[in-house]
Amino acid sequence: MKIGTDGVLLGAWARLEQAGCILDIGTGTGVIALMAAQRNPAACIDAVEIEDDAAEQAAGNIAASPWKERITLHHLSIFDYAPPAGYDYLICNPPFFNRSTPTPESSRNTARHCIRFSHEELLKKAALLLTPQGRFSLILPPKEAEELIRKASLLSLFPLRITRVKPTPDLPVKRWLIELSRMPVLPEESELVIEWQRHRYTAEYIALTKEFYLYL
């Protein structure tokens, strides 16, 4: 999986500006970690990736970036990762699908399907990695997002913000952007439309992502 709208949305939407330490879980080719470094010039960023090819590409992308001194890549499973301290912000574009049919391509399966771990296991690990005031942002399809929020509440993680994303005004919501914290509050909810029509982006989407595209 290379660069997709989901990762760009999440990297642009997450409130990373005040975080001192950020962890990108399943960094893939490193896009979200690089966006975090661009957005927060003071943060130290760790990025975890288990897939060999993706980790190799992430390492190359990080090394070629202006922020290579602030991003550390860890080539291992998040469940084998044991940092010495917690994180102010966790960010993850996780595998989506719990019950769908995997594709023949194994690396794509790992990126899109919950084969190696469940969302519940991911939440349990996140609860261990977060500082008391830390936050955790993810992007998921609506059904999986609702289920994740329910499971998160059992671990005392609650939605702080939810943005429902529609491809166009006439299409149904395809993704939820979710920010979790340990505070049981009424979440801030909003909606974002990406395009008015094919390749004609809304002002809201342009404002959110324009710092990360060469042409928009």
Structure commentary:
By secondary structure, the protein is an alpha/beta fold. Helices cover 31% and strands 27% of the residues. The chain has seven helices and ten strands. The protein has helices spanning 5-13, 31-39, 52-63, 106-112, 119-129, 142-153, 203-209; strands spanning 21-25, 44-48, 71-74, 87-92, 130-140, 158-166, 175-181, 188-193, 195-197, 200-201. The protein has an eight-stranded mixed sheet with strand order 3-2-1-4-5-7-6-8. The protein has a two-stranded antiparallel sheet with strand order 9-10. The protein is globular, with a radius of gyration of 16 Å. The model is unreliable at 106-114 (pLDDT under 50).
SSE topology:
Blueprint lengths: L4 H9 L7 E5 L5 H9 L4 E5 L3 H12 L7 E4 L12 E6 L13 H7 L6 H11 E11 L1 H12 L4 E9 L8 E7 L6 E6 L1 E3 L2 E2 L1 H7 L7
Parallel strand pairs: 1-2, 1-4, 2-3, 4-5, 6-8
Antiparallel strand pairs: 5-7, 6-7, 9-10
Can you describe this structure in just a few lines?
The chain is α/β, with parallel strands linked by helices and 216 residues long. 31% of the residues lie in helices and 27% in strands.
